[in-house]
Design a protein that fits this description.
Layout: E1 7-10, H1 17-26, H2 30-41, E2 47-51, H3 53-56, E3 65-70, E4 78-84, E5 87-94, H4 98-109, H5 113-120, E6 122-125, H6 130-143, H7 150-169, H8 173-193, H9 203-212, H10 214-230, H11 234-244
Parallel strand pairs: 1-4, 3-5
Antiparallel strand pairs: 2-3, 2-6, 4-5
């Protein structure tokens, strides 16, 4: 998950790949492992949720357990990563009010990490508080992020135009790869935010785009994949221009930041 919470400590488990494979094959189910973890490490917590890929049916061999803890005895939020019963676990610990701060942070950055964990998560333990917290998360998710101002849209158009010009003019293959990476990130953000949709990072870029428009996502992935494989820039250029067009197209001449009017 995203690193919005402070990481308190990280514990690594040593062993060969074959030893790890045997451990993975014999470990408990995610729900049972989560229950035992909570009973052992947070026995007096008021609520706990198991979230992440394991509850969405998207788990892989390297997936971890994302566990959100609510405990009024905790004085400050923290995040901790560890190994328990052969499961890598990321635990996000909150008291009964601190989560609101992170809801607000996630809302303002338009990446609702904690809200998604709370909304999608399976309740492992509860003392009649989860229904209210889930309702808060669901309301934020359904509302969507703040609408971009016209000034913000102009600024984003300019930065995308600048990156696109760099991409078109770049003859250094190595440099072009990283310009393309930046373009991919900027374009995904522009498409989603101008349509009041949540954005993502890493694998959540594609997931967020897919949630909005699967057809566009297919074109987006194919355009950048073609460039990465063949160095053909045409589809990326066409894609970026098509994204900018509804908002006025490329922007360079006349753009300024901080100039007195």
């Amino acid at each position: 998950m995203d690193d919005i919470h402070n990481t308190r400590s990280i514990t690594y488990s040593a062993g060969t790949s074959s030893e790890l494979g045997k451990a993975l094959a014999n470990r408990l189910s995610p729900i049972e492992a989560a229950r035992k973890f909570i009973h052992c490490h947070f026995p007096i917590c008021h609520a706990a949720i198991l979230a992440g890929s394991v509850i969405r049916g998207e788990a892989t061999e390297t997936s971890d357990l994302d566990i959100v803890i609510f405990d009024k005895h905790i004085d400050r939020s923290y995040r901790e990563s560890l190994i328990y019963l052969d499961w890598p676990i990321e635990v996000f610990v909150h008291n009964l009010s601190s989560y609101k701060k992170f809801f607000d942070i996630d809302y303002k950055r338009a990446r609702p990490t904690l809200q998604r964990m709370v909304s999608e998560g399976i309740v492992i333990k509860d003392s009649d508080i989860i229904i209210q917290i889930k309702q808060e998360a669901n309301e934020i998710l359904s509302t969507g992020p703040e609408r971009w101002s016209e000034e913000t849209i102009m600024m984003k158009r300019y930065f995308i135009t600048d990156a696109l010009d760099d991409f078109i003019g770049c003859s250094n293959r190595f440099e072009a790869i990283f310009i393309a990476n930046k373009l991919a990130e900027l374009v995904h953000e522009f498409v989603l935010r101008t349509n009041r949709q949540w954005i993502g990072t890493s694998k959540w870029i594609v997931r967020s785009l897919n949630h909005f428009d699967k057809s566009f996502t297919k074109d987006y992935v194919e355009a950048f994949d073609l460039f990465y494989q063949t160095n053909n820039k045409e589809k990326v250029i066409a894609l970026v221009e098509s994204v900018l067009l509804p908002s006025g197209g490329r922007l360079f001449s006349g753009f300024s930041i901080g100039k007195n009017k």
